[in-house]
Amino acid sequence: MAARGLSLLVIVALALSSLGCARTWDAQTWAGTRPELAGHSVGRLGDATPYLIAADDTLVVFLCRWSLDAPLRVSLPPDASSEERGLLGRALRAWEGVVPGLRFEEVVGEAPLTVRFREDDREGARTAAECALRTPIPARGPLDAAIVAASVELRRSERDAWGRPIALTGPELLGSAAHELGHALGLQGHARRGDSVMVLEVDAVRRIGRRLARGEALEEPAMSALYALPSGSVVERRPLAPGATAAVDAGAATAEASGSSVAAVRVGDRGAWIRWGSDFEYFLRNPAELVSGELEFEQSLDDATP
Questions:
Q1: Per-residue pLDDT of the chain (306 residues; tens, 9 = 90+)
Q2: What are the b/e assignments for 183-209, b being 16+ CB within 10 Å?
Q3: What angle do CA 272, 59, 240 make, to 5 degrees?
């Protein structure tokens, strides 16, 4: 990294999209270099899309999760029925069983994690999670990063082949809530296969919802592995071609000159939007392919003009 560094707070908010045909990153090999994961299964961790930030001709790929220093405050939908609140509570308890030290505290009103029902015409649930990354970025070791906020939007119904709304059953809502909470806790993207609530296939998620409704435990080794690591653990520091991040670095310098110290990044599997302060924004295409090496940074970078 250049000596000047980037005195920024990076907030990463992830929007979900289809994983498509992108390869996974090699989590199994990487885990072998991490003493924290000795004896741990990493499950489908390699299917998750890590966070990323580029600066000074380096692409830094890293993992991010919530701090467990205190209970995670969560606000449930104020319009939820008693049955819905019970199902959402079961989804929270299921994840507590996966991550040692994770405890949710249900509160009224604003909270770092909010769960709401969406009643508009858009299909499916969606989740956005925000990871705060403080810079300058160190040359080695973990980054100073943690998820600080997340929002989950659930649907009470889906539409059939004729466009008619069909209400979700209790187990179906339970499976959907568990899936979206998995994104909110730090597993972005979707598991390509396997017995995971993080798969994209709706029927598979609903099957796990039915198992949770019967009282079975949730098993997600990828999440267990994520929380066994320090937040901000670096997957890769990838050197880029000289000048590859020139436009990004120029935008960061412009933001710094105006006193901005925050960058907002929204990452999905098909695109990422990065905004630093009020002065600079740019886009990345197919970040999952960028992480896996199928796409070069220069090909992914789009519209990075300060």
A1: 333 333 333 434 333 333 334 467 899 999 999 999 999 999 999 999 898 888 899 998 999 999 999 999 999 999 999 999 999 999 999 999 999 999 999 999 999 999 999 876 566 788 888 888 887 778 889 988 899 999 999 999 887 667 777 889 999 999 999 999 999 999 988 998 889 999 999 999 999 999 999 999 999 999 999 999 999 999 999 999 999 999 988 888 887 788 777 677 777 667 777 777 777 888 888 888 999 889 999 999 986 554
A2: bbbbbbbbbbeeebbbbbeeebbbbbb
A3: 120
Structure tokens at 151: 């929002």
Domain positions in the chain: 9-65+228-302, 72-127+147-225
Number of H helices, E strands in the chain: 8, 15
- Give the H or E element holding residue 208: helix 202-213
* DSSP H or E stretch at residue 32: none
Burial class (CB in 10 A: 0-12, 13-18, 19+), 298: exposed
Q: How far apart are CA 133 and CA 5, in angstroms?
A: 13
Task: Give the CATH architecture of domain 72-127+147-225.
Answer: 3-Layer(aba) Sandwich (3.40)
